[in-house]
Amino acid sequence: MTRSYKKYKVRINVIIVSTIFAWLCLSLRLFQIQILNGAEYKSAVILQSQKKHVAMAERGNFFDRDNRPLSRNIFHYTLSTNPKEINDKLGLAKEISAITNKPTDLYLEKFNSRTNFEYLERNLKRKQVENFNSNKYKEVNIEKHSRRFYPHDNIGAQLIGYTNADNIGISGLEKYFEHQLKGELGWIYKTKGMSGKIQHKSGMPFKKPINGNNIQLTIDLEYQSILEEELFKRQLETDASSATGIIINPQNGEILAIASTPGFNNNLFNMSDPNNHRIKAITDQFEPGSTYKVVSAISALYNNRIYPNQEFDCENGEYQYYTIPIRDHKKHTILSASQIIQHSSNIGIVKIIEKVGPKILYNTSRDFGFGSKTGIKLDGEVKGTLNPFVNWSAVSLGQIAMGHEVGVTAIQLAMAYCAIANGGFLLRPKIIRQVINSENLSVHIEKPIIIRKIADEKTMLEIKRMLRDVILDGTGINAEISGWRVAGKTGTAQKWINGKYSNKEFISNFVGFFPDENPQLLSLIIIDEPKPPYHWGGQGAAIAFKRIMKRIINMDDSISPPFHERPSKVFEIHAASKENIVKYDSKELGNIPIELSVKAKGHTGVRIPELRGFSMRKAMNALNSKGIVPDMVGSGKVAWQNPSPGTLVQTGDVCKVELK
Hints:
The protein is α+β, with helices and mostly antiparallel strands. It has 21 helices and 29 strands. The strands form 10 sheets. Strands 11-10-24-23-22 form a 5-stranded antiparallel sheet, sandwiched between helices. Strand 14 and strand 15 form a beta hairpin. Helix 3 crosses helix 4, helix 9 runs antiparallel to helix 18 and helix 11 crosses helix 14.
């Protein structure tokens, strides 16, 4: 050892030991960071260098049966910030003011707040956001959102419903099918560069959002528009508090239109009366009155308690039934069972039901679905009121036979009449045709569901004959549509107010279908609290039914009129004679070429059809079928046409049509 080493030995050893100790400490610290706390520090690095962005799923939409959109999604952008992080408040205020045309003081006030979060602007359009300098003002968060828009405003508003500020369904079909419509959120990780700019790099984890399913309804937009328009018109004419209507295909239970008036605009739902938001056809029950008499008639006929031509004494319009007097609106003496339905005799139906008894009437009513929910895919349906027959009083049998002491919903009554129209099958009401996913593939098709068979076809055929007589020469003559063989029943019911039946407040209702032998459409109309004389079913609701159905017939060419066989014509063939031979003078033909002379005398043109009163679609179909070119002006119904109806023209000629 040298003297120098001996002199600095202690110092050298201290340095060596210190170095080893420092290395051990550093190794332990690295072990702690990388092994023990590795996950924690990794998360911290990721938070600083990466940012997870949520990718919004597009909400599914509603379409009518012809794929016309009933809802849409409008995308908008939201600007927000933490006021404490803003450096250039005045510059940012001017930047936002330039794209919104709002005063800068509005934003300066928000920037000077003491909160950690402030919404600067909502519902901005994409073009506005594109003009914002996001690179300069990184402290401003830009988020993409969507909100619901309903392109037809009031049309179908109660049925479709609406969403809240978070785009979650809170009413109608929007609420019932929330799980189908909302879709699944996606996400994507983006990295933050040295400049602080956030960008996506390949290889970073992500999950694509799954858009919500689209739902095609059984509703026909044109039917729905007509129904709502005519209901509101009739409500105003009769000075009623409200009106409700349903249009159904009785063969498969598809609801083509359903509405109540007054309605509301679901784009502005928070500015309307909440009482107008509910679907009254499923939420409100009422005593139907005479429209319930068919239930009594079917219970008697199907169980062989009476026959259609059996006669009953209707007591000249007044009859004491136990403790209550029964009166008819018109005095009758002897009526057959068919005539009792035709003229809606209260006394007659009470005498019929006395031969039936409470148990059979109750069971028949239950078979028709009264006292239970129909199963329609909507929230808020009530089951109505039908007490067990063991709890009936002495007069309950007669009262229920007339449509009192029983509470029904519009959808229950409509489906009961569908069973009559289709030959005896109670169907579940159908509001959905199919559910379609984001890839435009059908994931669910709704099929008609038969709940039960109520009675045989023979009984229902007899009831349909009775209902046809109601229209021909009974209480429903105002519902007749010439050439379409309407069958139906009127109903007038006193409202139960303060423990007794009111003599001032009534419900006018009518159920009808056509053609009677093979029904294609069925409609129920209810007018609540109309002024006299519109409180009668035949004076209030039946007229609305006729107007609605006539407009639909004129609009929809797919509805076929009833077929009636005509006697074949027999033509006699006679031998030709000189008197029967037509001769043409060569002078009359003039210079017409021989090959055209036949065409000149034997015209092959077509006649202009009558178009006035037609919808645009029906008028175009009528002209196109004859090879005539339509020239349409205006909208609504055809008010004028040129050439006039019956004019002989050539195919390819133009017919000018004006609609108003």
